[in-house]
Design goal:
The complex is a heterodimer of chains A (174) and B (303). With 174 residues, chain A is of the alpha/beta class. Chain A has helices spanning 11-16, 34-45, 88-93, 107-116, 128-132, and strands spanning 3-6, 22-31, 58-60, 98-101, 119-122, 135-142, 151-165. In chain B, helix 4 links the parallel strand 1 (87-94) and strand 2 (144-149). The chains are: A alpha/beta (174), B alpha/beta (303).
Chain lengths: 174, 303
């Protein structure tokens, strides 16, 4: 039932996925939420280089809780994606290919996903403890001053998501 | 008796209660989520092969399964079930036999929260300035504290770990005084529809009716304090809760917003007197991770 995916996504894989498909992600993800989105878009607007190349990348909307001794990362479930909507078209334009969050997206984002042949993946909201056990490594990439909201890269194994909006714009949210 | 409490001991009690709340849900919520899964599974079996609802119900069931697995992991690994350990909201009910030094008790509550955040691997989710710097306070402090006079003897502090995915869906409607219970049901249903899949459904819906605008909002939060599934003591308001619950379930938002036959784990209404010209109605939503705790001093010795 669950399809195994090795990150980064390639074009063929993206195009083969449809809304409601269940995936298990393996590989590396960028992590960023509200403030990271605002800062990245500001840099793009000023024509300045980004602290991470977004081309081909997948970003996870998340800010982790503190890590306990025996885990790489603490509780780390998705945050509400709709807040990232105003920034998403610019990041897709800059080469981002997939996003992971929770809840519905606006029409502008759906159109932008269609335009760029991107993907929106839904992670299980509130399931931070479960996701903590699927992270095998993490490092801060930029904006360390944001604390739990910094731009990070994490490495995941068997990270469960459902395709929320596929590259043709089909959405699970009515 | 307030002169007698030991602040260090109270802070410890608060910390333990909050850490426990971050990892475990009250049993009525678990029962209701299991019931939700049973109903969804039954409905799914009754659908024909080509029915568009099959995908939605299967995804909804997957959400409920993951929630159960997640709760097992939170317990076993001793970490918060959700990374959004919230802003702590405290409701301090002060009985007639109690004289309270508010500044001193606030400090003790702060101490309990910061111990919980440190020992319980919470996320520091509080920023000091809302508009400009938005610097993280780095301590998960301060909490929001509501001081409430009470007829019950003793001192009870009820806590909520209020995540903001659901808090951002809070809404208020100032209805006409003649709107009646039908008007209330429509208003609440509209607010929950607008929230849709954003607040991590399945959800608990707190409804505050009456007072002024800000009072209705506070009542909607206090409604969320009631054990989920416990009906309002006034049968008319209990019936109103049921009517709202039926209307919310009919929205078909479903777990995770994927669409399903059930969305609400419970609806609780709190009401108060209001003005001749108005009928304020407020809605506060809790995600399925409806984390609550209570610490009781004096009066009775339950914790």
């Amino acid at each position: 039932m669950k399809r195994e995916i090795t990150l980064p996504f390639d074009r063929r894989t993206i195009e083969s996925l449809g809304a409601y498909d269940r995936l298990s992600l393996n590989g590396s993800l960028l992590v960023g939420r509200d403030q990271v989105h605002q800062r990245l878009c500001q840099l793009l607007g000023e024509g300045k280089p980004l602290p991470a190349d977004l081309r081909g990348e997948t970003i996870y909307y998340m800010g982790p809780a503190a890590a306990p001794a025996q885990l790489v990362m603490g509780s780390c479930g998705p945050t509400t994606s709709a807040r990232m909507d105003p920034f998403t078209p610019s990041l897709l334009e800059a080469g981002l290919v997939a996003m992971i969050g929770k809840g519905p997206r606006g029409d502008t984002v759906i159109n932008s996903i269609k335009l760029h042949g991107a993907l929106y993946l839904v992670a299980f909201g509130g399931c931070g403890a479960l996701y903590a056990t699927r992270v095998t490594g993490s490092e801060t990439v930029a904006f360390e001053d944001l604390g739990p909201e910094a731009l990070m890269r994490i490495h995941v194994r068997d990270f469960p998501v459902i395709v929320g909006i596929d590259s043709r714009g089909n959405s699970v949210f009515g | 008796m307030m002169g007698e409490y030991d602040p260090a001991q109270l802070a410890r009690q608060i910390a333990d209660a909050l850490i426990d709340a971050s990892r475990h849900l009250e049993s009525s919520l678990i029962t209701r989520m299991k019931h939700m899964a049973d109903v969804t599974e039954r409905e799914l079996l009754s659908l024909t092969t080509g029915d568009a609802r099959r995908n939605r119900y299967e995804a909804s069931l997957e959400v409920l399964r993951m929630i159960m697995e997640n709760l097992g992991t939170a317990d076993h690994r001793e970490i918060p079930m959700c990374q959004d350990t919230g802003m702590v909201v405290a409701f301090v009910a002060v009985g007639p036999d109690i004289q309270v030094d508010m500044a001193r008790l606030s400090k003790t509550i702060d101490q309990g929260i910061s111990m919980a955040a440190r020992e319980g691997c919470f996320r520091n989710s509080v920023v000091a300035d809302p508009v400009f710097e938005r610097h993280n306070t780095g301590t998960n402090l301060p909490p929001v504290i509501h001081w409430l006079p009470s007829d019950e003897p003793g001192l009870t502090i009820r806590f909520m770990l209020k995540g903001f995915g659901s808090e951002n869906c809070t809404a208020l409607a100032m209805l006409n005084p003649t709107a009646g219970s039908d008007g209330v049901v429509v208003a609440v249903t509209d607010m929950v529809r607008k929230a849709g899949g954003k607040p991590c459904p399945p959800i608990v819906v707190g409804v505050g009716i009456g007072g002024t605008a800000e009072r209705a909002l506070l009542l909607s939060k206090m409604a969320l304090l009631r054990p989920t599934g416990e009906a309002h003591p006034d049968p008319r308001y209990a019936a109103l809760e049921q009517e709202i619950e039926r209307a919310v379930q009919a929205l078909g938002i479903g777990p995770g917003g994927f669409g399903g036959p059930l969305t609400a784990l419970g609806v609780a209404v709190e009401h108060e007197q209001t003005h001749i010209a108005g009928l304020p109605v407020a809605v506060s939503i809790s995600c399925w991770a409806d984390r609550k705790a209570a610490v009781v001093l004096g009066g009775c010795d339950e914790t």
